[in-house]
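Subject: mismatched residue count in predicted assembly?

I count 492 residues in my input, but I want to confirm that the predicted structure covers every chain. Input:
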Amino acid sequence: MLPAFFILIGTHTFGLPFWLAAILGGVATLILLGLAFKKVMVDPMIHHGVLPLVIATIGLAILMKEAVREFYGADAWPFPALWATTDVTLFGAVFAVQSLLILATCIVVVGALQLFLAGTLTGRCMQAAAQNPAVARLLGIRVERMILYTFLINAALVWIAALLVTPIYLAKFTNGEILGLYAFIAALIGGFNQVRGAIVGGLLLGVIDNFCAVYVSSSYRMAVPLLVLIAVILVRPQGLLGRVEERTV
Amino acid sequence: MAAAELLKFENVVAGYGKETILHGLSFAVPRGAMTTVIGPNGAGKSTAFKAAFGMLAVRSGRILFEDREITNRAPRELIGEGICYVPQGRNIFPELSVLHNLEFGGVAAPKGTDLKARIEAVMDRFAVLRRKARHQASTLSGGEQKILEIARGLLLQPRLMLIDEPSIGLSPLLVEELFALLRELRKGGITLLMIEQNAKRALENSDYGVVLELGRMRLQDSARAILSDPRIGQLFLGGGLSA
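Triage response: the counts match. Full output below for your records.
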């Protein structure tokens, strides 16, 4: 939600061309949602445990949402599409070009992320810092730096997601909340500890959601993701592609 | 001329929060030897290691390595000095491969270090690591995991290795193999400082012993002399060590 409004501020308030506003919006996202979020909120809070940090993050999300509503209003704002908004017919089915390109971008980005995490020493150091920060520190891995990289990557992904989906859903202060909830459920269904799990979960959720809306009832479509989530948790708590993690207790 | 002692604790005071565990700990670790630290629970053995490796703030006193002060320096700097620390318990990254776990041993290596060659050399030494290089580290047995941790430490060609409870959770046969490996490392010139609950077994394999009690050094002597000291049994049975 926030990167989309950064871009809109660039185009509306400063009259910048879209491409420049998009780049500057990306930089603002990296600085505010990546660097500043980590330095101002995570670093001081992390010593108090995970739960206070989660609560503080939820608080910050509410603050950001309400701030956008305060300054930009509750209306949905149109957002330029990166690609043509036409349809194509493939194997007798009609697809929106945008949807296909979003899927393709998603696969490329997740593939690149996987490649970075597994194929580079920095990526593996990030995994090590996530799996066991105490041991990572003993080996000389700069854990704080790895955490910062994680937040920067996270901010970059949020920016990409905003560029992809805002033309469809329009820029609205509630975007982060609604899409974030769907994304969270999709990640749980696919497997929280697997990057590709989120894609599988999202795809599955989207297909089931649309089939239900057409063939069952559109009134209950909001309940469908939760029903799928309950079913998956009951049968496979680690998610469809997730790995069971051992924990020392 | 290099000092006979590689590592020295001088009146070290350290602890957790308001609790003080080390009350002026002083002892020295002879260069090129294998020294075992023993003592009952709460004696401060692991705390001393953590203080030496920069994981716990030293409140007063000094720790010297090769006569240079290393008090309160960060682990990464100490690795650069040639100290490696193998903590107790499981310290691998279970979801990563054996090779990638091994590679982390060289993260703090100085620029220009040929890590590939060192990894090859370490895998030549430990055949099991080469055989299972591509396996997920969690598939290794307890003994193999400990070997992986030690091999990871060797990647930086350390001069001092701190090992905390290496035999914990290992079968007697594996413990024997582990001590043989540690003896071999000592022969190769690495100074070893080890904490071991299996005090008798460890002292039999060591050159020197240090006995800690309530955060202070109570006895330091050759391992043989400590083994035959009647007061040691008393210490482990709950009685204090009357010096």
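Chain B has a mean pLDDT of 88. Marking this ticket as 'not a bug'.
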